[in-house]
Amino acid sequence: MTAHANVAQLIDHTLLKPDATTADIERLVAEAADLGTYSVCVSPNLLPLADARGLKVATVCGFPSGAHRADVKAFEAAASVRDGADEIDMVIDLAKLKSGDIAGTEAEIRAVREACPAPVVLKVIIESATLTDDEIVAACRASEAAGADFVKTSTGFHPAGGATVHAVELMAKTVGGLLGVKASGGVRTGADALAMIEAGATRLGVSGSREVLAGLA
């Protein structure tokens, strides 16, 4: 298998613009199928998809701020699963984490986990660019304790920025292979993708997947 194909199979081909239409999503799915990506990631209001073309379907929860009640996130996640989502990418309550309420962070992740049990894949978006190293570690440990499957760097919408090699390395070291690590936000070139994978990313959130994969040809 080529490097191009290997990287494609790690990509959640993503369109989360708030004005994305059903027609836009149909084009996204067609492009994802053509590129051979692992999944498509879309907003929950665009579910269910008419035809996912055999791709996994991911969606977001508590997006993009994370400033939602845990029971609202749980309800949203469960509704998305009923609408065909295979994977849920939830945003944590950043204020809760940054105020030191790690138990509260773990509790909200667990609430979403209980609302969408396995085999649904749960990814926890921690907005790593806003966190100290200690906070990144705490968020990863809370995610693991609550039963998540992945920790994810970023929404791609926060002004602080997206994924960095340092954050991915720290997240990968903290979870020690027990959870996956998704690098998202700012992965725009083939070199970016390879750097994140080298740092420990096991999934990539990418909107410009064709351009990223073209850089690996």
Automatic annotation (TrEMBL):
<dbReference type="GO" id="GO:0005737">
    <property type="term" value="C:cytoplasm"/>
</dbReference>
<comment type="pathway">
    <text>Carbohydrate degradation; 2-deoxy-D-ribose 1-phosphate degradation; D-glyceraldehyde 3-phosphate and acetaldehyde from 2-deoxy-alpha-D-ribose 1-phosphate: step 2/2.</text>
</comment>
<dbReference type="GO" id="GO:0006018">
    <property type="term" value="P:2-deoxyribose 1-phosphate catabolic process"/>
</dbReference>
<protein>
    <recommendedName>
        <fullName>Deoxyribose-phosphate aldolase</fullName>
        <ecNumber>4.1.2.4</ecNumber>
    </recommendedName>
</protein>
<dbReference type="Pfam" id="PF01791">
    <property type="entry name" value="DeoC"/>
</dbReference>
<feature type="active site" description="Proton donor/acceptor">
    <location>
        <position position="182"/>
    </location>
</feature>
<dbReference type="InterPro" id="IPR028581">
    <property type="entry name" value="DeoC_typeI"/>
</dbReference>
<keyword id="KW-0704">Schiff base</keyword>
<feature type="active site" description="Proton donor/acceptor">
    <location>
        <position position="89"/>
    </location>
</feature>
<dbReference type="InterPro" id="IPR002915">
    <property type="entry name" value="DeoC/FbaB/LacD_aldolase"/>
</dbReference>
<keyword id="KW-0963">Cytoplasm</keyword>
<keyword id="KW-0456">Lyase</keyword>
<comment type="similarity">
    <text>Belongs to the DeoC/FbaB aldolase family. DeoC type 1 subfamily.</text>
</comment>
<dbReference type="GO" id="GO:0009264">
    <property type="term" value="P:deoxyribonucleotide catabolic process"/>
</dbReference>
<dbReference type="GO" id="GO:0016052">
    <property type="term" value="P:carbohydrate catabolic process"/>
</dbReference>
<dbReference type="InterPro" id="IPR013785">
    <property type="entry name" value="Aldolase_TIM"/>
</dbReference>
<dbReference type="GO" id="GO:0004139">
    <property type="term" value="F:deoxyribose-phosphate aldolase activity"/>
</dbReference>
<feature type="active site" description="Schiff-base intermediate with acetaldehyde">
    <location>
        <position position="152"/>
    </location>
</feature>
<dbReference type="InterPro" id="IPR011343">
    <property type="entry name" value="DeoC"/>
</dbReference>
<comment type="function">
    <text>Catalyzes a reversible aldol reaction between acetaldehyde and D-glyceraldehyde 3-phosphate to generate 2-deoxy-D-ribose 5-phosphate.</text>
</comment>
